[in-house]
Amino acid sequence: MIRVALVDDQALVREGLRGLLQNGDDILVVAEASNGLDAVRMVKSVKPDVVLMDVRMPQMDGLEATAQISADPELAGCRVVVLTTFEMDEYVFRSLRAGASGFLSKDIDPEELRRAVRVVAAGDSLLSPSVTRRLISHFVATGSPGPTRPERLAVLTDREREVMAQVAGGLSNAEIGRRLSISPETARTHVHRAMTKLNARDRAELVVVAYETGLVRVGHV
Left (φ > 0), alpha (ψ -120 to 50) or beta: where does 57 sit? Predict the structure, then answer.
């Protein structure tokens, strides 16, 4: 069973999410919280596999709660997915930097919600090409500074850098395989090796590192 925790200050939203998720035979909602402060305490106690985290909440917002959860080594197996709306693009980059594994809209289709939870629980991230484009747009709009710590990539092989650049373009393992003429399994292996060498939690963090180190540049993916 995939153990899920719900964090939202609206009880009606939590009730709706719980009902949608538990229609799946392999998903169990194990805890709920109505603010970020309680969320951190709850996650430390329950240690769920996936946390669905709202952003705007009293006492502590979802971004700070995500950052605290992601920074705790005892919670390394816990993945946070931020609940957002298409009008909240300013939260995309900040959520990734805080350690989120992806984003979901609150009006997501029920089956897509369950699929997304399964994807994140399996160790992947919810970074579709559209979300990645929003991340790239952040770099353009904010005039982000030049690359920092490019030497961080020295631990990667040429192939791992090549695969990581494709991840930064929002490509799946299957798509990377087709573009680089390798199998999806080989692409996945390279992605996980890059994550391990760079101490990245998931593909979402790889995207951030790819841009921050200058491996890829806006408009050149």
Answer: beta
